[in-house]
Design brief:
The chain is 41% helix and 20% strand. The chain contains 12 helices and 12 strands. The strands form 2 sheets. The chain has a 10-stranded mixed sheet, sandwiched between helices. It has a two-stranded antiparallel sheet with strand order 6-7. The chain starts with a strand and ends with a helix. The structure holds nicotinamide-adenine-dinucleotide. The site of nicotinamide-adenine-dinucleotide (NAD) has 22 residues, from helix 1 and helix 4.
């Protein structure tokens, strides 16, 4: 198989974790007889520096030509007070829109080797295995009208939370299809006691659920969900929610996995006739300016995102499982970065990448 992949390292630790993720991708492709055609593009702060815009046309073109896109992270502190259209994060919204990826999948698992890294009690976290399905193209982040107007005490800011029935339907179908392959439970998160937007969301979710009689559905208000994620995380299987709520809840869920650096994500759009999904794959974390350039960042979220790419965009389940297993093996070995609080000296970003490649090689040789 030839895998045509666009790589966007982005900013800060995005560059460092991408290097390791690509290393693992090349290694897996070579070991399993696939060829890869990699292109590299600019997105985020680096794109602003080099082209004046966070999402250059050349990057758009490359993304539309590729089968799948891998992104490190975007964001540079020097743009913190820039207007929204000149901020690196605008590039992120732009590429999601261009690829029309409408569902962001964020699996959260507690690994045995990392249970002590979570600030939560072991018995609460042990056995957690959930996936957050976050709607990605609607809601407050894209709704109009938006903007800041007026001056003085009358200066005013507006954002609009908007969803159409069809946007809710397609992401709900995806959540239920995932649940069919898991423990067959969907929990839909909304704020229907206050927001009309959430009332439509809940009504449409209930309608779609009727097509999946084997899957149990329950509803939870977002504020209670935030609490239950850290009180009773094992009650969740597939957590379905809209854009803003999903953004916040998935960072909160990071504590269950030990570190935000562990979390992969897959943003999925249309399904090709071959059955593969158009996808944008990225770790959940940002560009972490506080540790950028120090070879300290945990690359496992990025490497897990490569596994998700192999699984969802290319249907290479065996190759994806080899990467997931290698991650587990490296965690068990204790050679992990500082964020996972290892007993001995922490490993560097590149040492963890090398260890994953070695673990994949061992798995290959046992076949
Ligand atoms: P962040 O995820 O970059 O960092 C939060 C904290 O987690 C920091 O202390 C950081 O050191 C730590 N951390 C993050 N990833 C880590 C890793 N792989 N290994 C070890 N530690 C890690 O979030 P932030 O500080 O709120 O945002 C920094 C910048 O990133 C901002 O410009 C923000 O807009 C951007 N951002 C981008 C994305 C993205 O590209 N998808 C996502 C979130 C934030």
């Amino acid at each position: 198989m030839n895998l045509k992949i666009l790589v966007l390292p982005g900013d800060g630790i995005g560059v460092e974790v991408t290097r390791e993720a690509v290393k693992v991708l090349r290694h897996v492709a070579e070991a399993s007889g696939h060829t890869i055609t990699l292109s590299e593009g600019l997105l985020g702060g680096i794109a602003i520096h080099k082209t004046g815009t966070p999402f250059p046309e050349e990057t758009q073109k490359l993304a539309l030509e590729a089968d799948a896109t891998f992104l490190g992270a975007v964001g540079l502190p020097e743009f913190d007070s820039a207007p929204p259209e000149k901020r690196p994060e605008r590039g992120l919204l732009g590429i999601r829109k261009t690829l029309q990826v409408y569902a962001n999948l964020r699996p959260v698992r507690s690994y045995k080797a990392l249970i002590d890294s979570s600030p939560l009690k072991n018995e609460l976290v042990d056995g957690t295995d959930l996936i957050i399905v976050r709607e990605l193209t609607g809601g407050l982040y894209y709704g109009t009208p938006r903007g800041i107007s007026g001056t003085g005490p009358e200066e005013r800011a507006v954002n609009t939370m908007t969803y159409t029935r069809s946007e809710i339907e397609r992401v709900t179908h995806m959540a239920f299809q995932l649940a069919m392959k898991r423990r067959k439970k969907v929990t839909s998160v909304d704020k229907s006691n206050v927001l009309e937007n959430s009332q439509l969301w809940r009504r449409v979710v209930i309608e779609v659920a009727a097509h999946y009689p084997d899957v149990a559905l329950d509803h939870i208000l977002v504020d209670n969900c935030a609490m239950q994620l850290v009180l009773t995380p094992k009650r969740f299987d597939v957590v379905l929610t809209e854009n803003l709520f999903g953004d916040i809840l998935s960072d909160e869920a990071a504590v269950l996995a030990g570190s935000i650096g562990m979390l992969p994500s897959a943003s999925i759009g249309a399904q090709r006739p071959s059955g593969a999904w158009v996808g944008l794959y990225e770790p959940v974390h940002g560009s972490a300016p506080d540790i950028a350039g120090q070879n300290k960042a945990n690359p496992l979220g990025a490497i897990g995102s490569i596994a998700a790419m192999l699984e969802y965009s290319f249907g290479l389940t065996a190759e994806a499982n080899a990467v997931y297993k290698a991650i587990e093996g490296v965690l068990d070995s204790g050679r992990v970065t500082a964020d996972l609080k290892p007993k001995g000296a922490p490993a560097t970003t590149s040492e963890v990448g090398d260890a994953i490649c070695q673990a994949v090689a061992v798995l290959e040789s046992r076949k």
